[in-house]
Amino acid sequence: MIRNRQLLIGICIIFTAIVLYPAASFAQSGTVDVDTTLNVRQAPSTSAHIIGSLYPGDIVELQEVANNWGSITYKGETGYVSMHYVHMRASELAGKVIAIDAGHGGKDSGAIANGVLEKRVVLPIAKKTQAKLQAQGAEVMMTRSNDSYIELEDRANQANTAGADVFVSIHANAASATAASGTEVYYYPGSSSGYALAAAVQTGLLNQLGSHNRGVKSADFNVLRNTSMPAVLAEIGFLTNAPEAQKLASASYQEKAAAGLVQGIRDYTD
């Protein structure tokens, strides 16, 4: 009987751990640091409804961190905890400076097809990527954070001035053949570090998006030529392909793209 009770308790503990702290491949872990309990809230506000509690020493997987609130998965739903009481654990990206470049912007809309503008697709992907990188301890330099026009040389210069460890430019593709689809990542010709980063980012994107693999390619793009660190340009998908354009315009697909970019960056820096 005692053995059965111990076995039952053990199963309950394991089940609780799985429910409370599911594996999150693209989040950074944090340790709860409180005297009693830490409230898990329904929204990032001290006035939001409390949906549960965490205890000193509990490990949480932080999906995103913004305004001193971290989002976690708690019993199958999204919850928020105050980062004042969560100690961030070191990750491969901790201390790294990552330059994220949302392509086009302002007067330059980029590709336009199926009612979707490239500049309006890549900016939210860039912002989601920024949030995920910051949650893992990286310092993120954004070449643009709004619908503004930035010269290509200035994008590279921003990354160089910031001393970025890697540079990732985010784009959406277009082709005369509307059946063209898939993901491809470019690096500067002859750059072995650029190729390694491109290969890692391509793998990360394919893992998350399940898109057609168009491969890793080299090209003499301005932002790749003028950056002094490993740099890549990622073409997430084709706006000229109607089904793919619909995906690219959706927040859920943008979230997956961001997760793929972060996976690639992290695997490269590991």
Automatic annotation (TrEMBL):
It comes from the Bacteria. Keywords: Cell wall biogenesis/degradation, Hydrolase. Residues 27-90 form the SH3b domain. Transmembrane segments: none annotated. SMART domains: Ami_3, SH3b. One of its GO terms (cellular component) is outer membrane-bounded periplasmic space. GO terms for biological process: cell wall organization; peptidoglycan catabolic process. This is N-acetylmuramoyl-L-alanine amidase. It comes from Terribacillus aidingensis.
